[in-house]
Design a protein that fits this description.
Blueprint lengths: L20 H13 L3 H15 L11 H4 L2 H11 L4 H14 L10 H15 L6 H26 L6 E10 L4 E8 L10 E5 L7 E5 L10 E6 L5 H9 L5 E4 L15 E7 L3 H14 L5 E7 L8 H10 L3 E7 H4 L16 E6 L2 H13 L7 E3 L2 H4 L5
Parallel strand pairs: 7-8, 7-10, 8-9, 10-11
Antiparallel strand pairs: 1-2, 1-6, 2-5, 3-4, 3-6
Bound molecules: 1,4-dihydronicotinamide adenine dinucleotide (NAI).
Length: 389
């Protein structure tokens, strides 16, 4: 996702003066429920599971970790109902991604009915017939795009892949490099990410970027850091062993290389965020075009630079690649600050990968360094903010 998509904060997609009457009503509802968003979310799921118990098995046992992903995604979509160029690709992706949960077209009306039920309950001060009609139209559009995208995807790809862990390399006390072999061909692009479910936490899915470009042997590698209260990450780091079977969702994400240009790549990889940057470097190397690639690899301490040997080996192999470790403890500065003193960057595209705070301040830093928003790429910050990734 590029920086100017603005999906993370919802601002800037369209000015209110351009809004259709339905979008105005939808936004009014959203403003009304904003202060009680958590309550609306809980109420939505309560309605859904009481009225449609057959849908409960599609969700994880502990809903606190699932959080409000579906509900939030639907609200985000409704809010941007006037912006089909952004909305349609987002919804197609959402529809395809929901196949791995076992979602079918007949489930959508139930979700829509409970969405309207929850909104009307908590936005009662502004809820009227026109508002309800606007939400029904918005939801009908949203769900139809998702249903159609899932149907098209069904013809060309499985809903999920099984993958066997074939290597597990504990690099530090909390970071593992995990390599898996999918049971069927798994097409993806360097820079993308997928969702992973472990056998220990059924139906709890977390996102991980691919740490290599597609390989001839079909193996996939992920860098996983066990984060506090991170069920999936702890399982992958401390429990998974060769022979274990995990599930993978489809590849997604647009932090990929445009091979039609020859501009340089300025890459900021923080912590395990170095994983997709490594994949991008391999991708450029395979395409054989010499494009300058400058990598700033950030970590809190020396010890946290768990993949520095690989990065330095790549640097030795490729004269167009420069890797600069930035250790916060030594530099007394965070990763994006390290850009100062280097450049100019006006011939570069920027790629950012790491913790959400680093992405946010990194975007500011590269904008300030003269790289325009449309040449800045990173994954959606809210995808990275899943509570227990
Ligand atoms: N595609 C992506 O964007 C990927 C993102 N990630 C995310 O990267 C994170 C990695 O976590 P850790 O290894 O624990 O990283 P960390 O917390 O140890 O930080 C790594 C680097 O980011 C910098 N940093 C952290 N917070 C910052 C802030 N608010 N402003 C500026 N710089 C900041 C630090 O200076 C350090 O250099 C996870 O949140 C993971 O979800 C991981 C893989 C791929």
């Amino acid at each position: 996702m590029s920086a100017d998509d603005g999906a993370s904060d919802g601002s800037g997609w369209f000015a209110p003066r351009d809004a259709s009457p339905d979008a105005v009503l939808v936004r009014r509802t959203m403003n009304e429920i904003a202060p009680v968003a958590d309550k609306v979310t809980s109420y939505f799921y309560a309605l859904l599971f009481v009225r449609h118990p057959e849908l409960r098995p599609l969700f994880p046992a502990a809903m606190d970790t699932q959080r409000d992903r579906l509900f939030r995604a639907l609200l985000t979509a409704a809010e941007h109902i006037d912006h089909p160029t952004v909305l349609v690709p987002y919804l197609k992706n959402l529809g395809q991604g929901h196949r791995k949960y076992g979602t079918r077209s007949e489930h959508y009306p139930a979700v829509g009915e409970c969405l309207i039920g929850a909104l009307s309950q908590y936005a009662d001060a502004v809820w009227d017939e026109r508002t309800e009609a606007a939400w029904i139209r918005a939801y009908t559009t949203i769900s139809q795009v998702m249903i159609d995208a899932a149907a098209v995807d069904e013809l060309r790809a499985p809903a999920w892949w099984h993958a066997e862990v074939v290597a597990h390399d504990l690099r530090t006390s909390d970071v593992a490099v995990v390599t898996v072999r999918p049971d069927q061909p798994y097409p993806f692009l360097a820079g993308q990410y997928t969702s992973v479910e472990t056998p220990w936490w059924p139906r709890v899915w977390r996102h991980y970027s691919f740490a290599s470009a597609p390989r001839p042997d079909g193996l996939l590698t992920f860098h996983v850091k066990a984060v506090p209260a991170g069920w999936v990450s702890h399982a992958l780091v401390h429990r998974a062993r060769p022979g274990d079977i995990i599930r993978l969702g489809p590849p997604t994400g647009s932090m990929t290389v445009d091979h039609t240009t020859s501009s340089g790549l300025l890459c900021l990889g923080g912590g395990t965020g170095i994983a997709p940057i490594k994949a991008l470097i391999e991708d450029i190397a395979e395409h054989g075009r010499r494009r300058p690639v400058e990598v700033f690899y950030g970590a809190r301490t020396d010890h946290d630079l768990y993949d520095i040997d690989t990065m330095l080996r790549l640097q030795r192999a490729h004269p167009w690649l420069a890797v600069r470790p930035v250790v916060e403890q030594q530099a007394q500065a965070q990763l994006p600050d390290a850009l100062r003193g280097y450049g100019p960057w006006n011939e570069y595209d920027a790629y950012l990968s790491g913790p959400p705070g680093m992405i946010r301040s990194g975007v500011h830093a590269v904008l300030a360094a003269g790289i325009p928003a449309e040449r800045i790429r990173h994954d959606a910050v809210e995808e990275l903010m899943a509570p227990t990734s």
